[in-house]
Amino acid sequence: MSGVSFPVEKSFATGQQGATLVLMVCAGWLWAGLYATPYSITPYQVAATVGHRVRITPSQLLVGAGAFPLTGKSLQAAHRWLDRQGVTVRAVSTTARSRAANPAEAV
Question: Are 15 and 71 in contact (CB under 8 A)?
Fold first, then answer.
């Protein structure tokens, strides 16, 4: 992560009724806030995680305990931007997530 000065932030259109996702990468942690519009003052959903790791599904960015729905193009743009900031982005299959949520069904 040399050459990156913290914090850095970027907003992404979610493709979900005008909502905007703002991602902020800080030294040692990552913050995400979902705003109703690009002009909203406060987010209606927030998540943060220690470290620089996030997960993605085909339609969501997972930051800590927060799940943020994004269109495919927005998710791809967020993924590229996070990569450039030194954030590890790991793909998670939706079947693996449902098995983890319902271990009895995994048998």
Answer: yes
The whole-number pLDDT of residue 93 equals 80
Q: Furthest-apart CA pair in the chain: how many Å?
A: 47
The rounded distance, in Å, linking the Cα atoms of 21 and 2 is 26
Distance of alpha carbon 15 from its chain centroid, rounded? 14
Q: Which two tokens stand for residue 30?
A: 């990552």
Q: Does pLDDT of 101 surpass 80?
A: no
User: How much is the pLDDT for 16?
Assistant: 86
pLDDT higher than threshold 80 for residue 23: yes
Residue 75: closest CA among 61, 88, 92:
61
The model carries a pTM of: 0.81
Q: What is the 3-state secondary structure (H, E, C) of 78-96?
A: HHHHHHHCCCEEEECCHHH
